[in-house]
Amino acid sequence: MKRRVFILLLAALVSTGLSAARPTLATADNAAIAVNTKDGTTVFKVAFAIRRVMSDVVTETNAAVAYNSCTDCASVAIAFEIVLVESDASVISPTNIAIAFNENCSTCVAVAEAYQFVLGAGGGAVHFDAEGNRILAELRRRLHSLRKADLTIDQLQAILDDMSAQIADVLANHLVSAGPPRPQETTTTTPTTSTTTTTPTTTTTPTTTEETTTTTPTTTAEVTTTTGP
What we know:
alpha/beta; five-stranded mixed sheet; three-stranded parallel sheet; 4 helices; 35% strand
């Protein structure tokens, strides 16, 4: 799944050209796409989504793609996705991907950061409490306000990591079951939570990392940063 999405994203940018890039990349469930071809400018795109899934197969995709083909320019793409699995899904295989790509660039910087949270609710509907909704609304506002901030890459990374930690806290402490409790069953099973865990990387070529499955809710955070020659 991840390889297929990666090939689609890369092919859209490199093979089919910029005109086809946007519709192809838009096939991701949540995507931030920053494409810059104008010298001396910065393109900053963000995406923030909360998705509830009740199907047997969970394959949500979160993508951040930054592309430059210009001089003295920058592109920044940031994608946050929260996936709440409200079914007893038999397959939980999310994809989180970040691609930063410079083509025919001089003194340009491309930054792509993707954070994905996937939490299994054990087959029941859930919702955020009032405080959780307030925090998430503030995080969404804060994310969009970054467009106007004059930040270094390190400063941006620190802010995004802080936002990621706040989301993890909301999922741990401000997510509650909806409706009356379900009847006690004679057989107790542990809800399956599948996540993708990656280590932030810095590279001059698009990269992805392999997925791992755990039994503890964790955060997917994939970062790809490239700089011009």
